[in-house]
Design a protein that fits this description.
Radius of gyration: 20 Å
Structural class: mainly alpha
Membrane topology: Multi-pass membrane protein
Transmembrane segments: 13-32, 64-85, 105-125, 137-155, 161-181
Domain Major facilitator superfamily (MFS) profile: 1-186
Organism: Acinetobacter baumannii
Strand content: under 5%
Subcellular location: Cell membrane
Number of helices: 9
Order of helices and strands: HHHHHHHHH
Number of strands: 0
Largest sheet: none
């Protein structure tokens, strides 16, 4: 959107463009929900009609630690995702009063490239987990994220667009490796 709405136009209205395109996702999500079969476990529970009257209370009563750990793991992944595509690095790198004050368009192109890496690595993690296992894939993804987070700001602070793109893509690789298999654990 920085390319089609340069300068102040991006701040005023350009950032809304991706949200407008996301309307397509509503239809895709609806289609998926209507065509994908439920898991055998869900169907079995549905057949038995064995549901709890207070499922949230039962969840926290029986599995509080697991719920908290799962939320923290998901929050960590989401924080890395926000740093990549959510705007933090974009704002940090392009703030005119900040230490870097870089042009917005190359940063947005770097973020878009990182988003493509994230997309591909999410798909790849599913394929990889089928051959080496979900746990190994998940741990590998967190290892990549750990290294990426440690190197992200030193690389961004070089103010070199190729190094910023590399840092964002490396972080996106780790995020994708974890996102692809994460739902199998929760």
């Amino acid at each position: 959107t920085g390319v089609i709405s340069p300068g102040d136009a991006f701040i005023e209205w350009g950032w809304r463009i991706p949200f407008l395109f996301s309307i397509v996702l509503l239809f895709v999500g609806h289609w998926i929900r209507r065509t994908v079969e439920e898991s055998p476990v869900f169907e079995e529970i549905k057949q038995r009609k064995s549901t709890s009257a207070t499922p949230i209370r039962d969840l926290f009563k029986n599995h509080a630690l697991l719920v908290i750990l799962a939320a923290l793991v998901f929050a960590g992944n989401s924080a890395c995702g926000y740093m990549t595509t959510g705007g933090f690095i974009q704002n940090y790198a392009t703030n005119p009063e900040g230490p870097l004050a870089l042009s917005r368009t190359p940063i947005l192109i770097s973020v878009t490239l990182a988003s493509v890496v994230w997309l591909i690595s999410t798909w790849f993690s599913g394929v990889l987990s089928d051959s080496i296992g979900r746990k190994k894939t998940y741990i590998s993804g967190w290892g990549v994220q750990f290294i990426a987070v440690l190197t992200l700001f030193p690389l961004v602070n070089t103010a070199s667009i190729p190094l910023i793109a590399l840092a964002l893509c490396f972080l996106a690789l780790g995020i994708g490796l974890t996102y692809g298999v994460q739902s199998a654990f929760y």
